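hey m, so remember when u said the tokens were messed up on ur end? i reran from scratch. heres the input so u can diff it against urs
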Amino acid sequence: MPSIPPIQFEGFNSGIPWAILTSKSPGYPYNKEGTRQSDTPEKWRYGIALSGNRYTPLTVTIEGSVDFLSNITDEQIAEACASLQPFLVTFDNCYVSVFVIKGEQRMTATASGVKLVKPSK
């Protein structure tokens, strides 16, 4: 199967520049034996639901130790989703990569930053 070039986020989300935040977690460096090498994250992963793509789940990775959404806890994310008042986020320089593993289509995304947006009224 030919390689698909990375797709700009908005193109993958039907032109919608924002997504629903569903989770966030740090990514720590590990060695080949599976031992954590540092207590400082080397990246952050933000779980989102793409409203312009039937709420498809996607994880966006941002390299570096900075949590751009440090003022939001996992509990707040869960509560916001459960109350149907989710946190909406946009990403800087976000690209989605689509690939196939053992016949299954998979996706991953990278970005250089993330920020909260306020919904328009």
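this time it looks ok to me. Residues 30 and 119 are 38 Å apart (CA to CA). if urs says something different then somethings off w ur setup not the seq
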